[in-house]
Write a structure and sequence with these properties.
Pfam families: TetR_C_6, TetR_N. This is TetR family transcriptional regulator. InterPro entries: BetI_C, Homeodomain-like_sf, HTH-type_TetR-like_transc_reg, HTH_TetR, Tet_transcr_reg_TetR-rel_C_sf. By secondary structure, the chain is mostly helical. About 75% of the residues lie in helices and about 0% in strands. The protein has nine helices and no strands. Helix 5 runs antiparallel to helix 9 and helix 6 packs across helix 8. The longest helix is centred in the N-terminal third of the chain and has 27 residues. The chain is elongated and about 60 Å long.
Length: about 190
């Protein structure tokens, strides 16, 4: 019972951290603000997450769990291009999560950022997953002649780049439609 309550409390803290990071960025987010949102003191929060970095990693891991339906990144083995389009649709319904992820990703490129290693490893894994998705769809060559490994970073860049554009101008950028247009480019002429 106590363990279940502790896990529930950790979940509340992570959700509050997502909100605070979305509003202020990682560097602008304080443990005190997160603690206040869940009715704890900063010391009380440190019982669950001993450092701000530990909380950040929990936020990033939770975001990945949401994206894979509650499972691990290994669940991405079942991705197909049409399911990636569904993920883009899903992201368009949760701007706070996308904003948090994008803020952390942008900040992580700076030296010494605690999420840098997470994102470096995550992108290596995602590029591999996207290459597998492309290989399953097209075989060893896309209609353009690119290999899945050559196109995987482009697919990943389009997904994340569209998120930034959509966050900045949601009334001008239809993220799901733009992603589907990109899939049309990948598939080539005559491929629906």
């Amino acid at each position: 019972m106590a363990r279940a309550r502790s896990e529930e409390r950790r979940g509340e803290i992570v959700r509050a951290a997502v909100e605070v990071i979305a509003e202020r960025g990682y560097r602008g987010a304080s443990l005190g603000t997160v603690a206040e949102r869940v009715g704890l003191t900063q010391q009380g929060l440190l019982h669950y997450f001993p450092t701000k970095e530990a909380l950040l990693v929990a936020v990033l891991e939770e975001r990945d769990r949401w994206d894979t339906g509650g499972g691990s990144r290994a669940a991405a083995d079942t991705w197909r291009l049409d399911l990636l389009a569904s993920l883009v649709d899903y992201n368009a319904m949760r701007p706070g999560i996308v904003q948090t992820f994008s803020a952390l990703l942008g900040e992580s490129v700076t030296d010494g950022h605690p999420a840098r290693e997470f994102f470096t490893e995550r992108y290596a894994q995602v590029r591999g997953e996207m290459a597998a998705v492309l290989r399953a769809e097209f075989g060893d060559r896309l209609p353009s002649g690119l290999t899945p490994e050559q196109a995987a970073p482009l697919l990943t860049a389009v997904m994340d780049g569209l998120q930034y554009q959509w966050l900045l101008a949601p009334e001008s950028v239809d993220m799901p439609a733009a992603f589907r247009a990109f899939l049309t480019l990948l598939r080539g002429p005559g491929e629906g």
